[in-house]
Hints:
Elements: H1 13-36, E1 43-48, E2 54-59, H2 65-81, H3 97-130, H4 141-162
Antiparallel strand pairs: 1-2
Helix pairs in contact: 1-3, 2-3, 3-4
Amino acid sequence: MNNRPMMTIKRSRFAKGFDTVTLLAYLAGIIYLIFMWGQLPDEVPGHYNGAGEVDRWGSKWELILLPVIALFLFAFMAFMERHPEWHNYMNLNENNIEFQYKNSMLLLNVLKNECVLFFTYLHFKTVQVALGKAASLGIGFLPIFIGITIGSLIYFAIRSFKNK
């Protein structure tokens, strides 16, 4: 890792656009929570089981944790995205280093934004359940989250292996 060159690599338009969409959705979720705060009951869903059903109720103040965790994830993963020389690679060589750095940066960008969007959705849906506008997250939430995340990992791993 110490002998990997640092390279200045421009972020793609896709990465910048995905960040923008994610941040707008995140801010909309915060604004939604602020507007709905007075209508929320004192106890809101605090945890869901694998089927998306509420299995623990907690204080409405716990809702603040979801956007805080999402913001931390976004900041940390954005920092790591900007340092591809710190990432783990297989078959890294002089001929493919720029592609591998770009691929790894884009992978982190996609995972970062997916996580924040899922946290934002979870945050929104929890408010909906607390207000009685929804019964649960739905049985599809967990498989969709896992499927999209693993699908992204597989896609970028295949790209990496093809360009060794």
